[in-house]
From TrEMBL:
<dbReference type="InterPro" id="IPR052733">
    <property type="entry name" value="Chloroplast_QOR"/>
</dbReference>
<dbReference type="InterPro" id="IPR020843">
    <property type="entry name" value="ER"/>
</dbReference>
<dbReference type="Pfam" id="PF13602">
    <property type="entry name" value="ADH_zinc_N_2"/>
</dbReference>
<protein>
    <submittedName>
        <fullName>NAD(P)-dependent alcohol dehydrogenase</fullName>
    </submittedName>
</protein>
<dbReference type="InterPro" id="IPR036291">
    <property type="entry name" value="NAD(P)-bd_dom_sf"/>
</dbReference>
<dbReference type="Pfam" id="PF08240">
    <property type="entry name" value="ADH_N"/>
</dbReference>
<feature type="domain" description="Enoyl reductase (ER)">
    <location>
        <begin position="10"/>
        <end position="311"/>
    </location>
</feature>
<dbReference type="GO" id="GO:0016491">
    <property type="term" value="F:oxidoreductase activity"/>
</dbReference>
<dbReference type="InterPro" id="IPR013154">
    <property type="entry name" value="ADH-like_N"/>
</dbReference>
<dbReference type="InterPro" id="IPR011032">
    <property type="entry name" value="GroES-like_sf"/>
</dbReference>
């Protein structure tokens, strides 16, 4: 079968199509014929070597974490899935495995039935950003209509789900996005939208109970200027040193620095399946065929789009 892999760390040029044997399944696993996998910033952070402490340096490596497809085989210990089921899920170890192949073998515990009302592309787009959004909301404390939340980088994949879930919680949302994202931010629930290409969000007075930075460009130290005396900054792109920093920092200030590290699992997926039933919108900005996986990453890594980029596999 065909798979997208790379044999050294680098930019999109290291991605190549390789032939490899079909994966075999363990008793607890299902074999999924992949129909789509989504493109996430995590993929290129691993590929360019920024996370080599966790990913290791053994090659070839595959790319892609979340996928959708059709069950084509199930291990002897698997119940709840049969051949032909339409599913979506995540690979077991995102640092060492990848969804960018015609078939993937994954534990049945990391696969869920695809709702009928969404496409394969939409299903593949949900697990990573959806789990991250649910995890982040869990770190925000009690949310009601008086809670003022600023989402910086609000109309990428993560922001798309986060805005809609926060709206369901009734929060007051300020979304920061580029001009292209303004209409989407309003549609997904923002009460106020700031276009970062024409307005500096940090020049506002302190007004936020929660600031979450999805762009990775604001940082806690800058965000403090717009945070209320008792408030939370959520860091979704933490360096190891920042995890230590947050422990010490939070002993001495009521402006907390909180790290978000999400891990897709059944608890979160049930919340997301419920949200999908209630109309959670999954915007696919662009799909690419499997043969153009490199182009899909080039497009996504350039930025400047709303929603998700997905690769479709025939
Ligand atoms: N910790 C976790 O568990 C976890 C899980 C999932 C994702 N993440 C991380 O969360 C981040 C967001 O993920 P994503 O999938 O939403 O990525 P994404 O789709 O690339 O979204 C990032 C957004 O940031 C915006 N942006 C860029 N520069 C900005 C600036 N100066 N000010 C404000 N916004 C700016 C981009 O808008 P434009 O392109 O229009 O400029 C884009 O919409 C990534 O770093 C990802 O690795 C963390």
């Amino acid at each position: 079968m065909k798979a997208i892999a790379y044999k050294k760390f680098g930019n999109t040029e290291v991605l190549q199509t390789i032939e490899q044997p079909m994966p075999t399944i363990r008793p607890d696993q299902v074999l999924v014929k992949v129909k789509a996998f989504s493109v996430n910033p995590m993929d290129w952070k691993i590929r360019n070597g920024a996370m080599k402490l966790m990913s290791g340096s053994k090659f070839p490596k595959h790319t892609g974490v979340d996928f959708s497809g059709i069950v084509s085989d199930a291990g002897s210990a698997v119940s709840g899935f049969k051949i032909g089921d339409e599913v979506f899920g995540v690979v077991n170890n995102m640092m060492k495995e990848g969804a960018s192949a015609e078939y993937v073998a994954v534990p049945a515990a990391l696969v869920w039935k695809k709702p009928d009302n969404i496409s394969y592309a939409q299903a593949a787009a949900i697990p990573v950003v959806g789990t991250a959004a649910v995890t982040a909301i869990g770190k925000m404390g009690k949310i009601n209509s008086k809670t003022r939340i600023l989402v910086n980088g609000a109309t990428g994949g993560f922001g798309m789900v986060l805005l809609q879930l926060l709206k369901q919680h009734g929060a007051h949302i300020t979304a920061v996005t580029s001009s292209k994202g303004v209409a989407y931010a309003k549609k997904w629930g923002a009460d106020t939208v700031i276009d970062y290409t024409s307005q500096n969000v940090l020049s506002q007075k302190a007004m936020c109970d929660v600031v979450i930075d999805l762009s990775g460009k604001m940082g806690y130290k800058n965000a403090r200027a717009i945070m209320l005396p008792k408030s939370i900054f959520l860091n979704v792109t933490p360096q190891p040193i920042e995890i230590l920093f947050s422990m010490v920092n939070n002993l001495f200030t009521a402006k907390k620095h909180v790290v978000v590290l999400s891990n897709p699992g059944i608890k979160y997926t049930n919340i997301l399946l419920g949200a999908l039933m209630n109309g959670l919108e999954i915007e696919i900005n662009k799909t690419f065929p499997f043969e153009q996986t490199k182009e899909a990453y080039q497009y996504a890594e350039k930025g400047g789009f709303t929603g998700k980029v997905v690769v479709e596999v025939n």
